[in-house]
Design goal:
The complex is a heterodimer of chains A (about 80) and B (about 150). Chain A is mostly helical and about 80 residues long. Chain A has three helices and no strands. In chain B, α1 packs across α4, α2 runs antiparallel to α3 and α3 crosses α4. Classes of the chains: A mainly alpha (about 80), B mainly alpha (about 150).
Chain lengths: ~80, ~150
């Protein structure tokens, strides 16, 4: 490939590819939004289990209140 | 903290039953101070000797098996009542703590539990064990560096 062909190829490439702007970075910082999305994805199952466990605990307390005779039996098994 | 992990697992497991033991002093007071005819001596054998031992060994078993089974600690603990309940009931029957009647069972000669309530009580015990193992034993395992 001689110099003439190299110049031609260079011009063709410059015409085909869009020019890169002076500041290629996005207008705002995307990392906080990314962190928020990651946290939301992790927190969703945790929130479900927290509610499930709280409901179980409430059920336990309600059962002990309704059937007080069960309390010494539970203590026997702890 | 990488030494003796099974010993640390055992100690984390026996922690909760050990804390419950002072609560059983209430029954001792009822028996000896207020002269309530509750068979405390026989009733204390299981919670004082068997339960802490099994809790400790159950936590050791979880530490040993978790890398293969990946079973969460709460679920592992929820399986324990399936072992403890029959053992405890058998021992209680032999020691005269549990009397089996025609309509239900009588614990400690004073607590009557109808047969219809036994299945719900078992489920409640499973739920309680799940919560205690997930939150208390799990936290202890993390503190002792084995979880």
């Amino acid at each position: 490939m001689n110099a003439h062909h190299e110049d031609r190829l260079k011009k063709l490439l410059q015409q085909a590819l869009p020019p890169v702007e002076a500041e290629p970075e996005p207008g705002r910082d995307l990392w906080p939004a990314m962190l928020r999305r990651l946290d939301a994805r992790q927190a969703a199952p945790l929130r479900f289990w927290a509610w499930f466990d709280a409901a179980l605990l409430a059920g336990l307390a309600a059962f002990a209140a309704l059937v007080p005779a069960s309390i010494p039996v539970f203590l026997y098994y702890l | 903290m990488n030494t003796h992990p099974y010993l640390r697992a055992y100690l984390a497991g026996v922690f909760v039953p050990t804390l419950v033991l002072p609560l059983l002093l209430t029954f001792v007071i009822l028996r000896f101070v207020l002269q309530v005819p509750v068979p405390v001596e026989q009733a204390l054998i299981f919670p004082m000797a068997v339960v802490p031992l099994l809790w400790g060994l159950w936590n050791v078993l979880w530490l040993w098996s978790a890398p293969r089974t990946h079973l969460p600690l709460g679920l592992h603990g929820a399986i324990l009542p399936f072992l403890l309940m029959p053992v405890g009931a058998t021992l209680a029957t032999c020691l005269g703590v549990l009397a089996i009647g025609s309509h239900g069972v009588t614990w400690f000669q004073v607590c009557h539990v109808p047969y219809t309530l036994i299945a719900p009580m078992f489920l409640v015990a499973v739920a309680g064990y799940y919560l205690v193992w997930k939150y208390i034993v799990g936290a202890l395992n993390r503190v002792l560096g084995i979880a």
